[in-house]
């Protein structure tokens, strides 16, 4: 108890002094992570203060993430999130190679198409055309919903006018889409269902909203519907976050039947579907039909989010969102409260780019290139790794999600570290689960930044490491 | 009670059916706003269901904003926020004039400098120079902290290198700055102090974080320190949001002494200061010295937010943020979770614009133009309105905040409506208070979009309406 002693004289309120003192003890490891803090009664007695002072101090510690309260059992010290550590290690490894030449590293972590294929020159031309055409307008005008022209293009080119331009909201990429939808829909203690595993950027947003997060395992054609419905029966679910095509990280896509089942459940159990349609342009397997949740939605249940930055120029930070009628106003207000509006010039340039048919050309070009890479990657994985890993071919996208076979005595974090030492970068599955440990047997490899030679070399190295 | 009857057969969970039914009753005014809902016991008896079913239904209503629970007294119906209505009327009036020619309306609601003064041509030239210089980089590369070059420029030009470029985070405007800082600092039930009145966009964000909001009245040289400290003494305050120069809407600026007092209090009561430095470039009264809270901060207490969109080209959506060391990591993560990063091309262009000295030229030009407008406006207000309104000259910025004298039998919402009918637009004070009614005697008029003729004409009309 002695370490809790602190001088309480002076004009600072006593509870603030006590809080500061305990924070210091935790930061310096004089109180261990998870250590039980003294009871309110005993600490107030020891420091000769009111019970209320200690209650306030513990509340403040809790607010600042330095303590957790367990019902009926007292307060416990909490050091900053420990699972964060690997995330840090991972992002530092990525930063390290960001400046390096392609030849030095074999980078299987790429999340966007390679720079080599980006239509930089034609986009520059379009940008200049817009500056000449619109002048000041393009730099000054702010439109809360987004540039009218772009919204019309999206309505015509991507939705065959089935979605009106007034129902389209331009956002600064899919991540912002998820953030503003969450702000409009999800409050503290609301319940959200996500796929397991899922995109870590979405998990972070839901955690930040202090939602209760339920995970439902992904299967080959979508989530496990039985487990999904069990959760729906027991809990008041607000929304379900899903990536309908080439789900990140598993690469799996929903069957149309499963989408319809989920839409029915949404109506029965009164929840909403947040559809993150992030990669559907890259379908290689012709058996996969493109029909989004949104296009199947008859009951105003689906909020649709689409990123252009994921597959086009990442630096332009543009995407769009189609709200449900019910949340239209609150989602639009959420956008305004988040950053007023998205940069107008880029929207105008993208609009012109789409109108000129350049978007379509770029996509079909990209589709062709990546389809052959995909097939190569698939065959090399089979050739080099088949006895050590299990996987299902996604039929599209830019990633494979591999499971290390049970008999191999190495998890994906160990593999990540060993591979990194050999200048090969992979993404361990731990990043995609609420409980990171559940991803220990999995890793993701993407081929978007990799040519054939590096592909072979890299997979060979992974093979050797898994021996 | 009869109106509560609903058929509970079918596969939809009973509590969902009941919730839907009650929502409909509220939406259709069959249950009034504020009407007490039946007790759990009586409704469960009436509908022949378990108590738990009604508890779940009421919880769901509450989550969706259709009911509030009052401790020990039961649940009450809630219609969507009624104070929203005027906000809507106001923004619709603004939208209506957005497309019109300047001659048709006299617009005192302008929040940004007039388009006529924007350096569109020189910014376009700079944009093209960047596209030629950086090519693909400018459209592809994403930097979480923001473009290194721009962060260095900001460090050198605005902070004399006293703030390192690593401590600068580029954001998409001040509104985003407030949003991401709030996400990193403020959780449900945390307490925040704001100035009264204050910027409505900040109020919205704090409400959305479900913070407890305390207001402290603004005086001529900053907030009322006694009232401020009283709140600090009684409550565990997490942060204080302030606009240090030409506060929105009052136009008042903090004395250096008051800033120092607040910084001391921050250390004593362990809270943080969010400084929104949105207009300090426009100082006309030479007695006002520029020294931000941040520059006076010795104890890592101030999070500084600066918008470039407010005074420069609104469409470029760029600002920056200087976190405290303690929240640096969580604020940076908050930015990533919000929208990954800000559009790179615009950052590069702004950087080059600053490096070429064009920013400085533009600012001194703007300062000169607006100083003379400010003086004109001040003299015309005195000439036309002095017997009907009270005000304090701000000595800078682009607004005046006027109080309608007590003997006049008209509030600012009435004035807004009457003025609008005469094609004159003003901003009623009601938008800037937690309790809108407190702003009923005030209105804001800005001169950024107005030439001398319209100024005279518009003030004359306001004078006549107040007769």
pLDDT < 50 stretches of chain A: none
> Structural class, from helix and strand content of chain A?
alpha/beta
Q: The biggest beta sheet of chain A, please?
A: 8 strands, mixed
Number of helices of chain A: 17
Secondary structure: number of strands of chain A: 16
Features of this protein?
467 residues, Aspartate Aminotransferase, domain 2, alpha/beta, globular, 14% strand, Arc Repressor Mutant, subunit A, Aspartate Aminotransferase, domain 1, 8-stranded mixed beta sheet, 16 strands, homodimer
Can you characterise this structure?
- 2 copies of one chain form a homodimer.
- The first copy, chain A, is an alpha/beta fold and 467 residues long.
- The first copy, chain A, has 3 domains: 2-77, Orthogonal Bundle (Arc Repressor Mutant, subunit A); 84-110 and 361-466, Aspartate Aminotransferase, domain 1 (Alpha-Beta Complex); 120-359, Type I PLP-dependent aspartate aminotransferase-like (Major domain) (Aspartate Aminotransferase, domain 2, 3-Layer(aba) Sandwich).
- Chain A is built from 17 helices and 16 strands.
- Chain A has helices at 14-27, 40-47, 51-63, 84-98, 120-134, 136-140, 148-159, 174-185, 200-208, 225-234, 256-269, 293-296, 328-339, 344-355, 358-385, 412-421, 452-466, and strands at 67-70, 74-77, 106-107, 169-171, 191-196, 212-219, 222-223, 237-242, 272-276, 302-307, 319-322, 389-390, 399-404, 424-425, 427-428, 442-446.
- Chain A has an 8-stranded mixed β-sheet with strand order 4-11-10-9-8-5-6-7, sandwiched between helices.
- At the A-B interface, helix 1, helix 3, helix 5, helix 6 and helix 8 of A face helix 1, helix 3, helix 5, helix 6 and helix 8 of B.
């Amino acid at each position: 108890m002695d370490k809790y002693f602190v001088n309480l004289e002076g004009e600072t309120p006593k509870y603030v002094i006590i809080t500061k003192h305990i924070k210091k003890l935790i930061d310096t490891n004089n109180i261990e992570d998870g250590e039980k803090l003294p009871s309110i009664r005993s600490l107030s007695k020891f420091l000769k203060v009111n019970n209320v002072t200690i209650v306030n101090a513990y509340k403040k510690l809790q607010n600042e993430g330095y303590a957790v309260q367990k019902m009926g059992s007292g307060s416990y010290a909490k050091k900053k999130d420990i699972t964060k550590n690997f995330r840090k290690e991972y992002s530092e490894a990525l930063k390290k190679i960001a400046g390096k030449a392609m030849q030095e590293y074999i980078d299987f972590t790429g999340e966007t198409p390679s720079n080599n294929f980006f239509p930089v020159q034609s986009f520059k031309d379009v940008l200049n055309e817009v500056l000449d055409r619109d002048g000041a307008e393009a730099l000054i005008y702010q439109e809360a919903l987004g540039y009218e022209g772009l919204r019309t293009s999206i309505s015509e080119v991507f939705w065959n006018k089935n979605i009106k331009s007034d129902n389209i909201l331009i956002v600064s990429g899919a991540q912002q889409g998820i953030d503003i939808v969450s702000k409009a829909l999800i409050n503290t203690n609301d319940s959200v269902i996500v796929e397991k595993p899922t995109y870590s950027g979405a998990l972070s947003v839901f955690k930040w909203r202090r939602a209760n997060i339920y995970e439902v395992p992904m299967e080959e054609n979508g989530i496990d519907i039985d487990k999904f419905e069990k959760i729906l029966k027991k809990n008041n679910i607000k929304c379900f976050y899903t990536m309908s095509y080439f789900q990140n990280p598993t690469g799996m896509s929903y069957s149309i039947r499963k989408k319809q089942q989920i839409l029915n459940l949404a109506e029965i159990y009164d929840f909403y579907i947040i559809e993150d349609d992030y990669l559907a342009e890259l379908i290689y397997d012709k058996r996969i039909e493109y029909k989004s949740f949104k296009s199947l939605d008859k009951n105003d249940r689906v909020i649709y989010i689409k990123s252009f930055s994921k597959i086009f120029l990442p630096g332009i930070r543009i995407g769009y969102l189609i709200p449900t009628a019910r949340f239209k106003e609150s989602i639009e207000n959420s956008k305004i409260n988040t950053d007023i509006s998205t940069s107008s010039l880029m929207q105008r340039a993208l609009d012109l780019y789409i109108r000129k048919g350049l978007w379509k050309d770029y996509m079909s070009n990209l589709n062709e290139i990546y389809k052959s890479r995909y097939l190569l990657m698939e065959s090399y994985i089979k050739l080099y790794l088949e006895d050590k890993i299990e996987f299902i071919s996604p039929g599209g996208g830019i990633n494979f999600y591999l499971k290390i076979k049970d008999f191999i005595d190495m998890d994906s974090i160990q593999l990540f570290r060993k591979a990194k030492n050999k200048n090969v970068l992979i993404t361990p599955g731990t990043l995609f689960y609420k409980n990171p440990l559940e991803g220990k047997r999995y890793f993701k490899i993407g081929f978007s930044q990799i040519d054939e030679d590096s592909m072979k070399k890299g997979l060979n190295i992974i093979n050797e490491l898994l021996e």
